[in-house]
Every structure is written in C-alpha cells, then in structure tokens.
Amino acid sequence: MTLTLATTTPGEPEIFASLQGEGPSMGRPSTFVRLSRCNLACQWCDTAYTWRFTGDNRFHRDDLAFERRENQVTMEEGDLARAVADLVPDRLVITGGEPLLQGAALARMVAALNDLRPGMHVEVETNSTVAPHPALDGLVHQYNVSPKLAHSGNPAELALLPDRLSAWAANPRAFFKFVIAEESDLTEVMALQETYAIPGQRLFLMPEGRSSDVIRQRSGWLADFCSLHGLRFTDRLHIHLWGDTRGT
Question: Residues 29-46: pLDDT tens digits?
C-alpha cells in the first residue's frame, strides 16, 4: 500500500530532518513527512503545492497552479518508514496538506516505523476537520490542530465542524494553533475558546506570514494579547532560519 506525498523537487518526496518551527515542540529536532492533498483551501496557504493543482479553481492569493505530476509522488508504506528511521531525529512530524485524509495508510506506516525505531515520538498536524483513523490514533503522541478562521477563505460549515472541535478540545494530546493576520481575528478565537472550553495552555496564537518582516510586524501586539488572556504565543522559527522554502 502507498501514501501520497508532496515533493521537494519533481520525483523527490518531501521527507527531511529539521527543527520544528511552530507550536509546543518548537525548536526540537524532527523528521518531517509532508503528505499531499487537502480538503480545505486557505487563501494564504504556504504549501499550496500540496493541493492547488492545475484545474483546481479554489482561490489562493498567489493565483498559482501546480502540475500534479511534478508535485505529488506515491511511496510504499514500508519504504517511507525506513526513510524516516534512517534520519537522526527521534520525533516525527506528519504534515500536509491534510494528513488525516490518509489515516489508514499512515497507521500502517507508523506501526512499521515503531518496529524499526521504537520510542519515536509522533506528531500529526491537522486542520481539525478529519477524525483520526482508530488504528492511527493509538500511535500518535501529539496532535497540532489548526482550525481555519474566516480570513482563511474557507466557509465555517466546512472548516469549523462542531463535533470535531469538541472532540479535539477534550483530547489532552491536541494543541490548538490559530493563524492570526489581523487583530479582528482574535474575537473569533476567543469565541471558539469559550464555546469549546479550550484550555489556554493548549491554545497557541501564531502570526500569519511567509517572511520574517511580516511575522515580526504582527508578533508584538499578538504576544501582548496572549500574555493578557493566558494563551500561548508561537513564532514561525523555520521562516526566520530558512525562509519560505520546501524541505525546511
């Protein structure tokens, strides 16, 4: 069985060792596996090459279309497990796209990885709309859950599913990360926190931006808001270190 991955260059799956750039594990050495395909379409998405293929008319502010053949590749589950096991970090971050769309295959891959590298810490990054496959859920140590606010361009009926948000809020392994572009976005976050009783220690706010300059411009007032409301702030470390590039 295979998984569908994004690519760094045509034919090369996006599997790489780096530092986690966001959220509760920021700064930790991690191996990243970026899967392809997404059920949402964020207008500011910095990995649009995982979903906005030629013929996909969902809006993105860059108005770019990517050739599927150059930006998507399949890989056998066992081969992917071996590729991850061969890299140094003892932490795996499965990202996308929306990784949970491939939950059953991911479960088999992670199980194979555990045989090769016992004790690997597994994180899954998700947009919050897809329930984890039961076989995968027991293998995941941490979920980085990023519900999409109105400024993402996704309608709430697709992006903010009450049953899923309730389930994530009740899951102590789930850490919420909201992308913030304007101060007006904060009203929406606070309403969601109240509705779903999301603990402040598991709620991160992150400035939207694909350059250090934009991130820094938004960080000051956002950090102040976090300190006043008992929430956690997260930077985008990888952007400061390597810019908005694949494989970092």
Answer: 999 999 999 999 999 999
